[in-house]
Amino acid sequence: MILACKERGRTALVPVLAASVSACVTAWAAGGGAYREVWLVPVPSARAASRRRGHDPVRAVAAAASRELCRRGRPAVLAPLLRQGRRVADQAGLGSAERAVNLSGAFEAVPGPVARLRAAGRGPGAVAVVLVDDVVTTGTTLAEAARALRAAGAEPSAAVTVAATRRRRPIGEHYSP
């Protein structure tokens, strides 16, 4: 479904994928934390990829998930706090070390919205900043997105993805140089 939505333009699948994100955020938020509202931060797609696809699937899913959360009584907003600061290579086929090099310093926070987040995050109950992506493979993309937010003074609370790839190596097994 993710590939159909992302690469084949089946945007009718956005609400289904968003329901999954919304359910995950709801379950996470129920586990603790007195959040006034949830800010869903889509991991930015490359502008060229969005143009080629004709849409930005992660942003569309995050927007639909924020609407779904609001319908369920949990205040949520789409918060595009990140942008790509430089071009990156397509991640498909890259290993974890190559992904880390490819994405290092690639994202940057958008100053105006981040300033509004810092102002909104004060007072009783905090604003939960939740990163949203389609698929986690190595975690490098989410780590880079979190780094960019932290560098701007915005601490991410959680990350939600629609899917994850299988680990190719058992946990704890590492490459030796």
Overview of the structural elements:
The protein starts with a helix and ends in a 13-residue tail after the last strand. Helix 2 (14-30) packs across helix 4. It is built from 7 helices and 6 strands; from the N terminus they run H-H-E-H-H-E-E-H-E-H-E-H-E. It has helices spanning 2-8, 14-30, 47-53, 57-71, 96-103, 111-120, 140-151, and strands spanning 35-42, 76-78, 82-84, 107-109, 126-136, 158-164. Helices cover 43% and strands 20% of the residues. By secondary structure, the protein is α/β, with parallel strands linked by helices. The radius of gyration is 16 Å and the shape is globular. The chain has one domain (2-26, 34-87, 99-164): 3-Layer(aba) Sandwich (Rossmann fold). The strands form 2 sheets. It has a 4-stranded parallel sheet with strand order 2-1-5-6, sandwiched between helices. The model has no long low-confidence stretch (mean pLDDT 76).
On the 0-100 scale, what is the average pLDDT? 76
Structural class of the helix and strand makeup? Answer: alpha/beta
CATH class: Alpha Beta
Distance between the termini: 37 Å
Walk across the major sheet and give the strand order: 2-1-5-6
By DSSP, the count of extended strands is 6
By DSSP (H or I, 4+ residues per run), the number of helices equals 7
The proportion of residues in beta strands is 15-25%
Main sheet overview: 4 strands, parallel
CATH architecture tag: 3-Layer(aba) Sandwich
